[in-house]
Amino acid sequence: MPVPYSSYIPRVAIVTGGAQGIGHAIVQRLVDDGVDVAVNDVASKRDLIDKVVEEVRQKGRRAVAVPADVSSEADVSEMVNKTASELGSVDIMIANAGIFPFSQFLETPTEKFDKVLAVNARGVFLCFKLAALQMIKQGRGGRLIAASSVAGMHGQHYLTDYSASKFAVRGIVQCSAIELRDYGITANAYAPGVTATPENPGLPAEERAKLGPLGSAPQGNAEDLAAVVSFLARPDSWFVNGQTINANGAFFCT
């Protein structure tokens, strides 16, 4: 029997790349929505992870630190298991972690291309797959949400590897949404345009000019993206499934 979407209750989320930037804003927004959070980032950012965990607890919600490399299946499995064990469930997976390098197409080393795909695409696949297995075990549905990009909607200067990885995210989202809908699990993505964060307030005008059309794009902030994720994580978003939501200030429209 299919699991009804109405059985989903957003109790616990994992946010990858949650120690700073858009991920940090997503953590804060979900906490304000009444969700407990497992905060992930790479182990080298453990101090930042712990700081965010403390911020969550100060707001009266439960939190746990789950440092992991999202391109490692063993790490992601441990992250999901620790979250379920310490917070009681995994109801929302926010596969936000990613790397954003610049290089010209002809100067992009194969090793760099492989690394970007490993983190940005393989990482989403692993987070979705292992979280979905936990959600199916729980039997009450869930939400899988990933970071794509405006560069995952159409190509950009100097972003061949990044763009390829973000196009891949859209494919993972569409296929997983179709296969998991009978379990009451939805899969969607958000596609940011140029987004300012406290750690990255934006490029100087002379650097933006080098990026062609991307350099003149409207610029949002991390909270704007967190608002989109907040909607996708809610029970009443159930009919939005297999989609990539553009959030780029009309820089690119579909």
Automatic annotation (TrEMBL):
Cited InterPro entries: NAD(P)-bd_dom_sf (IPR036291), SDR_fam (IPR002347)
MF annotations from Gene Ontology: oxidoreductase activity, acting on the CH-OH group of donors, NAD or NADP as acceptor; quinone binding
Family annotation (SUPFAM superfamilies): NAD(P)-binding Rossmann-fold domains
Coiled-coil spans in chain: none
GO biological process, one term: fatty acid biosynthetic process
Similarity remark: Belongs to the short-chain dehydrogenases/reductases (SDR) family.
Name under which the protein is recorded: NAD-binding protein
